[in-house]
Amino acid sequence: MVVILFLLGSLFSWAMAVIVPVVSAVMFLLSHFLTTKLSEGAEDVHPPGR
Questions:
Q1: How many whole angstroms separate alpha carbon 41 and alpha carbon 46?
Q2: What number of H helices and E strands is found in the chain?
């Protein structure tokens, strides 16, 4: 979505062969970090088995 929203005009330039994978990796790591932090907080509120 980030690439489509902000970089669509230059999507077919040669630099996008580097930028798109880097942006994808950064977004994946950010989502993994946020999901991990939010799930840790959920276990404190609702422990497993209840």
A1: 9
A2: 2, 0
Q: pTM, whole model, 2 decimals?
A: 0.64
Each residue's pLDDT expressed in tens, for the chain with a length of 50 residues:
777 788 788 878 888 889 889 989 999 999 999 998 888 766 555 666 65
44: left (phi over 0), alpha (psi -120 to 50) or beta: alpha
Torsion 24-27-33-34 (CA) sign: negative
Tokens 């902000």, residue located? 6
Query: Which residue's structure tokens are 């970089």?
Result: 7
